[in-house]
Design brief:
This protein is an alpha+beta fold and 125 residues long. The protein contains two helices and seven strands; from the N terminus they run E-H-E-E-E-E-E-E-H. It comes from Globodera rostochiensis.
Length: 125
Amino acid sequence: MVLRRFSAHYLGSTELSNAEGTEDCRRAMQSAKLRVEHVDLTRIVLEVSLSGLNIRDLNETVLHCHPIGNIQAVCQDDVDKNWFAFILKEGGRRFCRVFCVITGANEIKERLENATNFTYNMTPK
C-alpha cells in the first residue's frame, strides 16, 4: 500500500565507500548539487510506503525499488530545503540518491524516516 506519491527531480546516485549517517548523506548531496548544471534533471514520481520506496518515471515504469529496511539515512539540505537525499545499502554497497522538489521535501524526509523507524522497531531483535 502506497502511503504517498511525490513528484520530484532525480539528480542521480553516488556510490559511497564508507557511509555511516546523515553527515555522509549531506556531503554526497552537496557534491551532487555542484554537478547539477551538467546533469539532465529527470522528472520522477516517488512512492513511499511502509514496505519500500519506488522511483518511477513519468510513464509509471519502476526505475528503482528499495525495501525500506535498506534505507540507512535520510537528510535534507540545511539551506535549500527543496533538496533531500537518502543512503541505501544494496548488496554490500552503499549509494546516496539525491532529489529536488518544488515543495514537500521535509514531508518526504519525515515519511521516509518514520517508515524506516517503524520497520526497524517491528524487526525482531
